[in-house]
Structure to design on (206 residues):
């Protein structure tokens, strides 16, 4: 399965200067948040495949105008095309507003996902906005990752955690990918193509 992963910044060749060949073979689109709802609505229309998303910390606009034709999995466990996915959007609370959480609040949100994870027999991919603590996050408070994500990875050992929030143009040579035990932690900033093989997972940037 080919998955298009998105976060934080709209890609011009997928929108204003649309190039349909970049969606060739894509079977699923995942958004990690902070993207214009019109952008997601456009992509789900052009691709004709499921688009799942979680909220970023700037996605209060979704309350009035959610992305059309897309499915919010924030705080949910779902199975799509045999892939077991859970979603935990939002970032650390650093100002008033929605989709921002303390560590304790995010721990409670993660705990509420556990029954759904157990019912579907585990999880293959965790979709978040913020990163796990120490693996692709920032040192400033607003971009600091959640330790509860690390505990979730320790317990269920998904193949991937895909996040956004930390823009890769914040600094030179910021890595897109980290390894946390059995889990690849992947920053989907901009766009990233993920190829899932029948007997494992591989990835490559496009």
């Amino acid at each position: 399965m080919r998955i298009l992963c998105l976060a934080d910044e709209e890609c011009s060749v997928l929108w204003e200067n649309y190039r349909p060949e970049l969606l060739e073979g894509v079977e699923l689109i995942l958004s990690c948040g902070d993207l214009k709802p019109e952008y997601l609505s456009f992509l789900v229309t052009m691709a004709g495949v499921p688009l799942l998303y979680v909220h970023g910390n700037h996605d209060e606009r979704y309350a009035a105008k959610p992305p059309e034709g897309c499915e919010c999995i924030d705080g949910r466990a779902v199975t799509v095309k045999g892939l077991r996915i859970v979603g935990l959007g939002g970032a650390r609370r650093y100002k008033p507003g929605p989709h921002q959480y303390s560590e304790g609040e995010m721990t409670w949100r993660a705990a509420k996902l556990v029954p759904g994870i157990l019912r579907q027999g585990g999880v293959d991919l965790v979709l978040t906005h913020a990163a796990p603590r120490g693996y692709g996050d920032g040192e400033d408070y607003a971009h600091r990752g959640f330790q509860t994500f690390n505990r979730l990875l320790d317990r269920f050992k998904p193949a991937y955690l895909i996040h956004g929030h930390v823009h890769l143009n914040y600094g030179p040579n910021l890595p897109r990918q980290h390894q946390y035990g059995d889990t690849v932690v992947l920053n989907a900033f901009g766009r990233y193509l993920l190829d899932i093989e029948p007997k494992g997972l591989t990835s490559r940037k496009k």
Remarks:
- The longest strand covers residues 190-197.
- The domain at 2-204 is CATH 3.60.21.10 (Purple Acid Phosphatase; chain A, domain 2).
